Amino acid sequence: MEMENVVRPVVFVVATLVITLLAGWLLDLLLRKADARHRETPLWGRLRRCVPPFRLVLATALLQSSHRQARILPGHSAGVGHVLTLVMIASTSWLLVRIATAIVDSAYARYAAASPDEPRVRRVRTQVALIQRVLTAVAVVVAVAAMLLTFPAMRVAGASMLASAGVLGIVAGIAAQSSLGNLFAGLQIAFGDTVRIGDTVVVDKEWGTVEEITLTFLVVRTWDERRITMPVSYFTSKPYENWSRGGAEMTGTVFWHLDHSAPVALMRDKLDELLKDIPEWDGRSGSLAVTDTTPNTIVVRAVVTAKNADEVFTLRCAVREQLIVWLSAQHPYAFPRVTTSETDPRP
Predict the structure, then answer these.
(1) Cβ contacts of residue 42 below 8 Å, gap of 6+?
(2) How far apart are CA 202 and CA 252, in angstroms?
């Protein structure tokens, strides 16, 4: 009899593990086959991320329905059942979040692949990311609340908690005023389309690309790989530059201070020649003109275009360098000269 009390629960646990592993393997196999047949959508491949929580839900459900018959810790069956209930709530929440994330990510991937409008794609990406965070937070809060309500003491305290909810809500609102402000600012950014993931922005005289947007903070990656973390409320209360607003295309300028005898017409022809060999140039515009003059120099400006801020910076550097090299080799007289004369040595 004692041997049966040991073997029986072990057999049930092992059988549960085997069934869970086989069911997870079968589900993963079916999803892989569906993904191979339907290459037009990434949904089935993304649903494979749901296999681990599915296994946990299945294993918990099997143990929860049979732990009394299996005599798993028979002296503590109520405690075992309570623990399994808690695990079931948590694993079910995990599974639902994974399924919702897979569906939303799949819909976004198909939209991004079919839409030629890059700014609109970035806007949708920002909205999807924030909506996913909100849904995850809601799922976690609901799961924790459901787990707490499984404790009898918490159910008894529920009435008094509801009675004091008004006062607590006011106190919490005052204490968390800044956090709530950032939360609503994050939702405003998501649906107001003021700034999106991938936008090129200038904040506090720092130039960079928006890398991540959450409900409370925003991360800007600068050109030298630094990350600036800022509260999202900054972007709803202070002015900033968004170079990608309405499109990522950029126009850049390059200046040279040259002598009055500089061959401007030849420089213009050379610029046209150079731009054709620079891959960052998008072909929209490329011009050169004299924009200012001083008693000793002239200011020559080139206007060039590229598809985004990173490439226009590279393009400007290439144009500046190559034209200086060309002038040094072919027209050295074009650089500014300082006129000097001998002084009279006599007192």
Answers:
(1) 35, 105, 106, 109, 110
(2) 16
